[in-house]
Amino acid sequence: MQEITAASLGTITTDDSGSFEAVYLFPEKFCGFAGHFPEHPILPAIVEIMTAVSLVCEHAGSRQRLLAVEEAKFLVPVRPNQELLVSCRPRTLKGKVLFEAKLSVAGTVSASFLIELSGSGELP
């Protein structure tokens, strides 16, 4: 998580709808690329998910634990040194507070999913 936090390129921006976002850049030497895949590195899906978790935690000002991932779609691989825009918004579904995450590279959605976190019953 420390390396994911270190990959953040700036501050979190928010809008009136409750959405928030930040930009990340994972360098070639990022530990998540090791072995995934030699000579053709792509960011593992779990790192994409944990980047969204990191963003929610930073926005909320508290550490939270990932409980569930729903409706996950990984559409475009994320390569080293690409700027990754991570956008999250709270959403209530079936009585649970989830965060809808969308990850984009150069304006193209690379992944989308819902995450449930411990302590996310109260919105920041």
Describe this protein's structure:
The chain has 124 residues and is α+β, with helices and mostly antiparallel strands. The chain has one domain: Thiol Ester Dehydrase, Chain A, CATH 3.10.129. 17% of the residues lie in helices and 39% in strands. A 6-stranded antiparallel sheet has the order 1-2-4-5-6-3, with helices on one face. A hairpin with a 2-residue loop joins β5 (96-105) and β6 (108-117). It starts with a helix and ends in a 7-residue tail after the last strand. The model has no long low-confidence stretch (mean pLDDT 93).
Topology:
Blueprint: H1 2-6, E1 13-14, E2 20-25, H2 45-60, E3 66-74, E4 83-93, E5 96-105, E6 108-117
Antiparallel strand pairs: 1-2, 2-4, 3-6, 4-5, 5-6
Percent strand: 35-45%
Structural class: alpha+beta
Task: Output the CATH class name.
Answer: Alpha Beta
Number of domains: 1
Helix and strand succession?
A: HEEHEEEE
Strands of the widest sheet, in order across it, are: 1-2-4-5-6-3
CATH architect. name: Roll
- Number of continuous helical runs: 2
Uncertain residue segments: none
**What's the CATH H-level superfamily name?**
Hotdog Thioesterase
Instruction: Please report the total strand number as a whole number.
Output: 6
Oligomer: single chain
